[in-house]
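lol ok so funny story. i was supposed to be doing the assay writeup but got distracted and ended up predicting the structure for this chain instead. priorities right. anyway since i did it might as well share w the group, maybe its usefull for someone
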Amino acid sequence: SRSDWSSDVCSSDLFPSHDIVLIVGAGGNGGIGSFSGGGGAGEVIAYPNFNFNQGTYNINVGLSSFTSNNRISKITSNLFSIYAIGGGNGAYSNVNPETGGSGGGGDSAGAAGGSGVVIVSMLTAYYSGTSSGATVTTSGSNTILTFTTSGSFTA
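and the output, tada:
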């Protein structure tokens, strides 16, 4: 005989997660000097099928800084931490042209690099409605939180 298995299966077992996390580290500063290299781009981390547990998540958005640790963007909870490293500074040179890309790790910095960003998209049913520091929008059945400054949200 057939048994009714529907009570043993959760909807999460049948449908893939609609939660998405995108984290971008801040860009490195440009070097000083007429032939200096540009700062490198920040790392980009994407999780297209992330599963948020109930709880509070803290967001740190990397900023342009002489200190590389300040360029890290991250999302943390009591269970995990996901981060994107910022780009390297451009090398210092008044003599020979330098390349851009990841920067040359120079000891001086020129123009500021761009700030990082953290974007979270989750099913609206799982979002508590509580956040700080985020621009909140919706798209279909998802709520999208865009952090260009540090903050937090609760799932």
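The chain has a mean pLDDT of 78. DSSP finds one helix and eight strands in the chain.
back to the writeup now i swear
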